[in-house]
Write a structure and sequence with these properties.
Helix content: 40-55%
Order of helices and strands: HEHEHEHEHEHHEHEHEEHHEH
CATH topology of the largest domain: D-Maltodextrin-Binding Protein, domain 2
Number of strands: 10
Strand content: 15-25%
Radius of gyration: 22 Å
Number of helices: 12
Length: about 325
């Protein structure tokens, strides 16, 4: 075989490999939602599924893989092939709060490559509509009496940290332990616990609560934004004298395993720009208090790292690091 022939074969092989890569995706893509039905992550994922599927051009197989405050589904993606066919709807709890709080978490941020963050949410603090807690002052008084309980989507989750942070800001001593924490399996279950009276209080993403507030089942006592949130009819943290609570925000993004190829990440960036521009998606998410903002892969990774560092400091300040 001549060098000329060998060169032609190599060139053909490289061309075929490039063509094969350019065909991604060739089959359906598995999309893991690491929290249960009805929570903020599930709502966001299923709302964007239709426009995102249209942009991708292949079916998206949506699956709730729940447990351990988002860790179970995250590990499933961490251990998947880095080929773009198993992706994760990551959330502030699974990839900012969990890494900040849990010393034995089976993954780190370096185990994932984020292709986007597309949604930012304020937090809202709510009670059941028939609760006798009418203000944050009432919440604080009950907590100081040792009689307040709050729900969350799991130990070490965003709502767990949020409630402790809010109570600490309002002056409750030993806020991480003074109120009774009632962890649930997911955001939907955390809301249900407040509705059925199992827990008094919940601080979580506005997107998971908007429907309950709109239909009169829940009453918002505060939102963690500089400006009021449409539909919540509640004072802002800043208006109550606690602008530091504005750093408590949620987000939703999409990630693959570490090692996800550059060209695959670039395709996801294009798809997300198209999907998040869908008017119906934007209308539905904004009605839930969400801010739609699509970040490119590099910006998303930088944003999440900053969020992690912010929450890690809060965890250290509140003494909430979980070592076991």
């Amino acid at each position: 075989m001549t060098f000329k022939t060998l060169g032609a074969i190599c060139a053909l092989s490289l061309g075929l490999a490039g063509a094969a890569m350019a065909e991604y995706p060739e089959r359906p893509i598995n999309m893991v939602i690491p929290y249960g039905a009805g929570g903020a992550t599930d709502i966001s994922a299923r709302t964007i599924a239709e426009p995102l599927g249209a942009a991708v051009g292949k079916p998206l197989v949506m699956a709730n893989v729940t447990g351990a405050g988002g860790a179970t589904g995250s590990v499933a993606v961490q251990n998947a092939n880095a080929d773009g066919y198993t992706m994760l709807f990551a959330r502030v709890g699974s990839h900012s709060v969990n890494p900040a709080m849990k010393a034995t978490l089976p993954y780190t941020l370096e185990d994932f490559r984020f292709v986007t963050v597309y949604e930012i949410n304020p937090f809202a603090c709510v009670v059941s509509a028939n609760s006798d807690l009418a203000s944050m002052e009432d919440v604080l008084a009950r907590a100081q009496a040792g009689e307040l309980s709050f729900s969350s989507s799991g130990v070490g989750s965003g709502p767990h940290l949020a409630a402790a942070m809010v109570l600490d800001a309002f002056g409750l001593e030993d806020a991480a332990n003074a109120a009774t924490h009632i962890p649930q399996q997911g955001g939907g279950a955390a809301a249900t616990a407040v509705l059925n009276g199992t827990a008094d209080f919940l601080c979580t993403n506005s997107s998971a609560l908007a429907g309950f507030v709109a239909n009169g089942q829940m009453r918002a006592l505060m939102v963690t934004t500089a400006e009021p949130v449409a539909g919540f009819d509640a004072p802002t943290a800043a208006s109550l004298g606690h602008p530091e609570l504005e750093q408590m925000v949620g987000w939703t993004g999409i990630a693959g395993p570490a090692g996800l190829p550059d060209d695959v990440a670039a395709k996801w960036a294009e798809w997300m720009e198209a999907a998040a521009a869908d008017a119906d998606f934007v209308e539905k998410m904004e009605a839930r208090g969400s801010i739609i903002r699509v970040m490119a892969p590099e910006e998303a990774n930088d944003f999440i790292q900053t969020q992690y560092e912010t929450f890690r400091k809060l965890v250290d300040d509140l003494g909430m690091r979980i070592e076991g």
